Every structure is written in C-alpha cells, then in structure tokens.
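input
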Amino acid sequence: MKETYLKQTKEERLNYLKSLHAFDLKELYLSLEDEDRDELFSLLNDSSKADLLSYLDIDDALLLVNTLETEEQADILSEMEPDDAIDIINELESEDKEDLISQLEPELKEDYYSLSSYDENETGSIMTNSFLEVYLDMEIKEVMKYLVQNAPEVETINKLYVVDKHKTFIGILPLKKLIKAKSPCYVKDLYESSLFVYANDDKEDSVDFIQENGLNYCPVLNDKNELVGIISLDDAIDTYEEEMIEDIEKMYLVSDDSNEGAIKSALQRLPWLIVLLVLALPIARLALVFEGILSTYTIIVILQPLILSMVGNAGTQTLTFSLIMLSDDEPNHIVRKSLLYEFGSGILSGLVLSVISFVVTIVFILINPSLNQNPMIFGLVIGLSVWLSITAGTFFSSIIPVLIKRMGLDPASASGPLITTVIDISTIIIYYGLASLMVEAFL
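output
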C-alpha cells in the first residue's frame, strides 16, 4: 500500500484513501514517515480521521490528537463511537481534557460523564451507549422507520434492544426477524430473551462471559435492570488483550512504565528485586555446601547452565498452562485433571531430554581433551539431573499457582519469581547432590 500511495498524485490519493477500510488506512498511516503521515491525515475528512483514530493504538492516537487544535479535536471525536472517543479523552492531560470537553457536542459530553462514572475495572467502563432501543408496544412499521433514521448513528443494527415503559430491559429484536415480519405486528410479538451483564460487574468476568457464550454484542444493565449500554466483540477482545498483557506483567514483575520517570520506575521495581535477591541467597549457600566437589570437578560448573536453562524453560511452560487454567475459572476437577496431565507430560519430556543430555554430555567431554573426566559417570549425572529436575520443576509450576490462589492472592503476580527461585534451588540440590553421590561411589 505504501508504494502505491506514494506514487499517486494528490487527487489519486484522495480517491485511494476513500476506498480503504479503516484497518488498512491505519496500516498505511503507520508505514509512512512523519511528513507523509501529516499529509495523509490532512487529506481525510473528519469521519475518516475518526475511523483512523479508532483503529490506532491508544498511544499513537493520543500523539496524533495532541498535534491538533482543541476545536478540531472536538469535531473529530464527535464522529467516533462514544466509548472510543472517551478512551482518548481520558488519556489527555487534565487541563487539555477540560478544554476539549467544554467544546464537545452536548450528546457526546453527556456520554462522557455517563461512561466515565464507572471504575476502570467495571464493565460499564468498556460499554457503549450507541445502540437502538425499542419499546414493546411499537408496531413494526414504526420500528423500521426508526431504524432507517438512526442506523448511521449507532454501533450495530443487527439487534435492536427491547425495553418496557419503565426502561427495564426485556430482550432483543434481531434485524432478520424484523425484516421478515408482516404488519400489523408489534415488538412484543417478536422479541427474544437475551443474556446480559451488569455495569458494575468486573469487566474481566464480563469478557469471559461474552467469550464463553459466543456473543457479538452483550446488553449491559444497571442495578435496576435498566439497559444502559452494550459491549461489542471488538471491545471485549481489546479488554481480553489488556488483561493478558497485565497478567504477563504481573508474572514477571514489570509494568508498562515507559511514561514514568526513571526514579519512580526504579522505586516500583526495587522492592521485588530486593525480595528476589534475598530468595537467591539459599542458592549461593548451596554452592558453599558443595564447594569441595566443585573445586575438584570443574566440569560440574561448566555443565550447570545446561540444566538450569532446560528446567527453567520447562517450568515456564507449565506455569503458563497453570495460570491459563486458573484464569478461566475451570471447575476443580478439571483443573486437577489438567494439571495431572501436565505433570505426566513433564515426566515424559524430562525422560526424553535426559537421554539427549546424557549423549550430548559424553560427546562434549570426548571432543574436549582438556576435560579429563569419566564421560559415562558425568553423562549419567547430567541425564538423571535433567530428568529429576524437570519432574520437580513441573510439579512446583503446577501446584504453586493453585496454592497461591487458594490463599486468596493473585497467582499471576506471585507465581513467577517464587517458582523461578524454587526451581533453581531444587535443581541445584538435585544436580550437586547426584554429582556428589556419583563421584563418591565411582571415582
């Protein structure tokens, strides 16, 4: 797209941009240099600019919005879906935000205050109030006229949302069913019941609910069972992605702190780094216990990274599997069955890797004349250590997240460093202990 676009005249570019889907427009925009990006943006009308901002990552969208005058910002955001516009507004500096809100159209301003009243972890924070609402006593001709007039202004027309005279949510009216109906006919004769979530529910639970039930759009109710919004599938996917990233950040004790100062970032990470330093002290103490054999047989130290890296990778895989199982809130018997399966898989994988490690160690010693050690003995030490360590690492990676969750803690934030340390300690004990026993018995 980039090459095609750059070769065109200004008039050709205008027509070309009109033909692009918003996703393709975003891809083209991001592929260009800054100067060409500015020119592309200037060629778009407010509606296309709104589409582009909706598809950009929030950071890229914010950079672009900050280059615009407040009046232009308000014009473009008014063309966006309320939830997308509010996501950008909420990222602005306080002073800029106040200036922008004062210039928004009354309807969008009302939407902003309504949707911004929810906590960022609540379902209401990711919903949109851009939908078509119909009443039970409406006749289908009246509904069709209402649909035609308002279709361009809402997120979806595949479903119309049915309420009674008290605004209580009743169900949905599928567009297909509406089109097939023959007058005289009323909404109360056509509507269907529908699943829904509440605005004050945890948004992660609501996203899981949408995914489990295969919903493209899900009604959102308040505590009075009044319809206050809907969640679209794309918003659910965005939220799911954010939660996955957050869990990974917790797992490795990092955060997306690129916009924070170096001192603040360091202060946030230091407590965990100090904890990890303290947890690493037992590993150093173990090395002193086996100081004699390590000084005599340096081959043990040389081959140690082979075992630690292999066991660490296997443990990370099992930990990831365990966290996915727990985050899906599977029943206990399913979790137990799956973790037993993972443990059995770890034992078999460890057995295969131990045989490979046995052969690799023998070859490594034989092709290095300076290592005048018994290749069979140390091949057995490495092979057995790999098998036992992977078995132990898989067990700890399976069981520790479960125990942490039962203690009422977040397994994603507590599991990573703890399991890494436990695996390292158990691996060192197994490896050094086996080496000592084998050397004492055969050498």
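quick obs: The first strand starts at residue 133 and ends at 135.
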